[in-house]
Amino acid sequence: MHNSKVTKKHLLASLLMTCSIVATGVVEAKTYNIGTDATFPPFEYMENNKPAGFDIDILSKILEQSGDEANFIDTRFSNLISGLRANKFDILISGLYITPERLKIVDMVPYYKTTESVLVAKDSAYQPKGKMDLCGKTVASIKGSKFPEQLAKISTETCVPAGKPAISVREFTTSAEGIQAVLAKAVDAHYDDTSVAQSLAEKLHGRVVISSTDSFFPILGGIAVRKGDTAMLEKLTKGLEAIKSSGVYEQLVQKYRLQAPTAEDITNYMPK
């Protein structure tokens, strides 16, 4: 009889707790697997054996708004979207450009604006300023990124019509490998995101410099989720708006010297 009373009490307590959770709208916090390529400073890099950088900070703050946590998984850039589609990751954040091709297979939330720059060895006689200066040169870029496609576009739309030779593109797994190729004189230049280029130049204490002065392809960067995952897309959108309202977003943008997109930028550069 005693055991029966205890069991009833436990059942009643459990029922009351369940009702309380439903009534208050409390939802158990989740930990999401985040795909990122931690070789892309200032967006993501390893610091004391842990992922760090703008993307790491901003997504952690976004998920914090819904009481959730991020488990960042380091992988190479070319593996990110395939990993997301294979359910290895729940979210991707890795300086991903928002392009029409990517939006066919993933959904994305815009969170920064950028363009590209060209890095060369400081002591090189070759100091390209714009697109035309890349014609006929061997240029490094990151495999799986938008950069090789952009360089091919410069070749076909700028170089060839002007009667100049096309750009020879060499793809590397990471930005660091591309820069090593520049220093080894295996390539003439390295083409990368402007913020990444600035970070690389600083880390190498002036051994490489940004020579380009022209703007290449202004574009938006986005956080990616699986196509049709509207719940996750809404969670990220609301979390981003919350940290913008609180001022946290602007603090992170300034800390990492990045550029926040305006409403006009999103209208102009978000693929239709």
From TrEMBL:
Record organism: Pelistega europaea
Keywords attached to this entry: Signal
Family matches, as PANTHER family: MEMBRANE-BOUND LYTIC MUREIN TRANSGLYCOSYLASE F
InterPro entries: Solute-binding_3/MltF_N
Record-annotated Solute-binding protein family 3/N-terminal domain positions: 31-260
Tagged with keyword Ribosomal protein: no
Keyword Signal: yes
Pfam families in the cross-refs: SBP_bac_3 (PF00497)
Transmembrane segments: none
Signal peptide boundaries: 1-29
This protein's name: ABC transporter substrate-binding protein
